[in-house]
Amino acid sequence: MRQVERAIFDVRRGLPIVLRTPQDDVVIQPLEGIDDETLTSLAALTGHAPGLVITEHRLACLGAPAHEVSHAVHLPLSADQRAGDVVAWAMAAEAETPEASQPATPAETAALGLMRRGLLVPAALSATVAPSRREAVNALIADGTLLVVSLEDVQRYDEGDMTSLKRISEAEIPLAEADRTRFVLFRESDGLREHLAVLVGDPAQWADAVPTRLHSACLTGDLFGSLRCDCGEQLRGSVAAIAERGGGILLYLAQEGRGIGLANKLRAYHLQDDGLDTVDADQVLGFGDDERRYHVALQMLEALAVTRIELLTNNPGKIDAMSRGGVEVVGRQACYGKLNEHNRRYLSAKAERAGHWLNDVLERDGTHATRRDISSLK
Asked: Which of these, 145, 114, 132, 133, lies nearest to 4 by C-alpha position?
């Protein structure tokens, strides 16, 4: 899987890669940072005008009919297409409805998986290498200019959650909410993400069902105290609650913005400033309601020999993910932050559209946010 991990590294740097299928070679160019010269160069390299690959979520925002079986869609581009128009199709709040679209090929669908893994906008340029250009492309592969990776390997990596964790380092770090705390750092095999297991109290004294919190990292809330969410208060409140219960675990997971990454979370915030709620803003960028996967949390609990937990969460999806992964969830404790004028709409969207258990907080306030419907973006 090393070639796939190298491919993820290259697309994060904005470099094109080659996906090799049994039939063709397909050049994939990440969308971020493209200009008109990028489109011209890609066409010259492959002998074909590139197309734009976007997700079904983004296609819905553009008002085009969905394709029944495809999770990704190919939009043909004209030879004189401008980069600004392409970027608008991929991520602008308002853009013209494309005249034509077709289901993406397996290679193009896999390419969007690489973009997600690299925390990029899930959109890419795609061009199949023409027979007349194969020799030139193979020469660039041979001299190391272009990286080639097989479609089969990318699919296995994405579908099988091939990322493995290594336990790297640990230390005692007393916290304001729990003075006996040990941090254990885990690193993913591709090196992109590091996750922390925060062990509160003496593991030998933990309850049979270990109080556990799965906390997705939120730089703006956890570190800077952003009022747009309640993450920082949930983080510190969870540590305190776990300490009061005699100890347990907080898994601090590198899943910023429900898995879309910090850059995309800031883009989503900008869209929310124009009236969208958090779910619709993510969909405008091409993401689903929640891009997080919890196989990493399951691996961390396995490494810590924990199989029964009481989960501190308001998210039914976390309970389901742990149960399906073989961890027994014997109970749940709510985990609330404070409601304020800046996060009210965000929390309302989580409750009303994602099913989070936040009614107690919202009903005390007596206010539910009104969202701007995504259909208005057509």
From this structure: 114
Dihedral sign for Cα 202, 204, 208, 214, please. positive
**Which residues are marked as active site?**
290, 292
pTM: 0.89
Q: What is the pLDDT of residues 93-148, one digit of tens each?
A: 888 888 888 899 999 999 999 999 999 999 999 999 999 999 999 999 999 999 99
> Please, what sign has the CA dihedral across residues 98, 56, 228, 114?
negative
182, containing H or E segment = strand 181-188
Helix (H, G, I), strand (E, B) or coil at 166: strand
Question: Helix 151-159 to helix 2-12 angle, to the nearest 10 degrees?
Answer: 90
Burial of residue 119, with CB atoms counted within 10 A of its CB: 0-12 exposed, 13-18 middle, 19 or more buried:
buried
Cα–Cα distance measured from residue 127 to residue 16, given in angstroms and rounded to the nearest whole number? 11
Residue with more model confidence, 206 or 346 = 206
Query: Average pLDDT, whole number, for the chain?
Result: 90
